[in-house]
Amino acid sequence: MKPESSRVIRSVQGNILAGIITIGPLFVTWLVFSFLLTTLAKAGLPLVHLFQTLFGGDWLGNPFIASVLAIILTLAVLYVVGRVTSEVIGRQAFQIFESVLERLPFIAKVYTSVRQLIDTMMAKKPSSQRVVLVDFPIEGQKSIGFLTRTLSDSQTGEPLAAVLLPNAINPTSAFLQVLPLSRVTETAMTMEQAMSMLLTGGAVGPETIRYSAGPGAVQNPARSDSPKG
Fold it and tell me: Are 210 and 144 in contact (CB under 8 A)?
């Protein structure tokens, strides 16, 4: 190959790589916002259909207008729910609502599990914000996870860890792994740093991270949480 052709190819490759580096973060940001907006729009569509049934009007038949209105209505509902539940009366009503849910078969199990997970993720206590690394999907390849609780093997008494492994870009989908506590590597990352890495595909995150086990592994706790039925 001629030197001139080689220089042209290297120049093209360099420019393409520079373009990827420039557009990459913008593309990932667009994916995240697109996912969030799509989710909000889907959640609010039933309200839009209700409005169209009550008040009529062809303007709601426009898909763009319907999607924008659905997003606004969903955000408004979330704000009202948050505002109501933050008040004393709202908290009491919410406690009654939860007590009713806890009496319903199957729904109680699902709701309680999701509620505990959200409380764990949103807790401000450092002990609840345990960002860890585990070998997944194969040994030698680390995945970011959230240590949600510890338990023990009923046969050997070995300490075990329940680790939630969210998928990158779409952390609402995740794997739940139960593995020996000695195979979990604890990191110094905060919950916010870990979520930033997941949402941006690793483009945003700390400059250094503890990868090796050894001193960084999660130490056996003084006591393990007993398994809950």
Answer: no
Q: Is 128 exposed, middle or buried (0-12, 13-18, 19+ CB in 10 A)?
A: middle
Question: 211 with 186: CB under 8 angstroms?
Answer: no
Q: Is the pTM of this model over 0.85?
A: no
Q: How far is CA 45 from CA 38, 53, 57, 71, in A?
A: 11, 12, 16, 8
Largest CA distance in the chain: 80
Q: Which of 103, 52, 58, 96 is CA-nearest to residue 73?
A: 52
Q: DSSP letter string over 77-111? A: HHHHHHHHHHSHHHHHHHHHHHHHHTTSTTHHHHH
Handedness of CA 78, 29, 31, 26 (dihedral sign): positive
Which tokens sit at 188?
């110094």
Look up residue 139 and give its amino acid.
Answer: E
Written as six digits, the tokens of 228 are: 């809950």
133: amino acid identity, one letter? L
Which sequence spans correspond to the domains of the chain? 1-101, 126-216
Residue 197's contacts (CB-CB under 8 Å, 6 or more residues apart) are 144, 168, 189, 204, 205
3-class state of residue 176 by DSSP: strand
22-56 per-position pLDDT tens digit: 776 777 777 878 888 888 888 888 888 787 777 76
